[in-house]
């Protein structure tokens, strides 16, 4: 990894006129690459993300309401209310479509 000597930002590589250059995305710094560099790439897989609402068990025994799904436009959804902010803020309402299981919240 190469960093900008001016502001410390990670330098990116750009090819221009069959030459490679390091360049900074936040300032005008640029530098031609004079020597071949050993470049290796590390690819990682995305970590499975946990459901913040508690998974499928959280949606058991919840009430239904008339709400239009933004994904499939079905007119009925499950809903639950949770206090996710400070006590002086109103509760957040989360919905899950009865038909397609798309989840959304009221903002």
From TrEMBL:
<dbReference type="GO" id="GO:0003676">
    <property type="term" value="F:nucleic acid binding"/>
</dbReference>
<dbReference type="InterPro" id="IPR001222">
    <property type="entry name" value="Znf_TFIIS"/>
</dbReference>
<dbReference type="GO" id="GO:0003899">
    <property type="term" value="F:DNA-directed RNA polymerase activity"/>
</dbReference>
<feature type="binding site">
    <location>
        <position position="27"/>
    </location>
    <ligand>
        <name>Zn(2+) 1</name>
    </ligand>
</feature>
<keyword id="KW-0863">Zinc-finger</keyword>
<feature type="binding site">
    <location>
        <position position="97"/>
    </location>
    <ligand>
        <name>Zn(2+) 2</name>
    </ligand>
</feature>
<keyword id="KW-0862">Zinc</keyword>
<feature type="binding site">
    <location>
        <position position="100"/>
    </location>
    <ligand>
        <name>Zn(2+) 2</name>
    </ligand>
</feature>
<feature type="binding site">
    <location>
        <position position="24"/>
    </location>
    <ligand>
        <name>Zn(2+) 1</name>
    </ligand>
</feature>
<keyword id="KW-0479">Metal-binding</keyword>
<keyword id="KW-0240">DNA-directed RNA polymerase</keyword>
<feature type="binding site">
    <location>
        <position position="69"/>
    </location>
    <ligand>
        <name>Zn(2+) 2</name>
    </ligand>
</feature>
<dbReference type="GO" id="GO:0006386">
    <property type="term" value="P:termination of RNA polymerase III transcription"/>
</dbReference>
<comment type="similarity">
    <text>Belongs to the archaeal rpoM/eukaryotic RPA12/RPB9/RPC11 RNA polymerase family.</text>
</comment>
<keyword id="KW-0539">Nucleus</keyword>
<dbReference type="InterPro" id="IPR012164">
    <property type="entry name" value="Rpa12/Rpb9/Rpc10/TFS"/>
</dbReference>
<keyword id="KW-0804">Transcription</keyword>
<dbReference type="InterPro" id="IPR034014">
    <property type="entry name" value="Zn_ribbon_RPC11_C"/>
</dbReference>
<feature type="domain" description="TFIIS-type">
    <location>
        <begin position="65"/>
        <end position="105"/>
    </location>
</feature>
<feature type="binding site">
    <location>
        <position position="4"/>
    </location>
    <ligand>
        <name>Zn(2+) 1</name>
    </ligand>
</feature>
<dbReference type="Pfam" id="PF01096">
    <property type="entry name" value="Zn_ribbon_TFIIS"/>
</dbReference>
<dbReference type="GO" id="GO:0008270">
    <property type="term" value="F:zinc ion binding"/>
</dbReference>
<feature type="binding site">
    <location>
        <position position="72"/>
    </location>
    <ligand>
        <name>Zn(2+) 2</name>
    </ligand>
</feature>
<comment type="function">
    <text>DNA-dependent RNA polymerase catalyzes the transcription of DNA into RNA using the four ribonucleoside triphosphates as substrates.</text>
</comment>
<dbReference type="GO" id="GO:0005666">
    <property type="term" value="C:RNA polymerase III complex"/>
</dbReference>
<protein>
    <recommendedName>
        <fullName>DNA-directed RNA polymerase subunit</fullName>
    </recommendedName>
</protein>
């Amino acid at each position: 990894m190469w960093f900008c000597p001016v502001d410390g930002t990670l330098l990116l590589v750009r090819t221009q006129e069959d030459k490679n250059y390091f360049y900074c995305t936040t300032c005008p710094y640029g530098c031609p690459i004079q020597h071949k560099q050993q470049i290796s790439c590390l690819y990682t897989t995305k970590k499975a993300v946990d459901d913040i609402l508690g998974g499928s068990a959280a949606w058991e025994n919840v009430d239904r309401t008339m709400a239009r799904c933004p994904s499939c436009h079905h007119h009925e959804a499950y809903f639950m209310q949770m206090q996710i902010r400070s006590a002086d803020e109103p509760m957040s309402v989360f919905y899950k479509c009865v038909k397609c299981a798309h989840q959304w919240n009221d903002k």
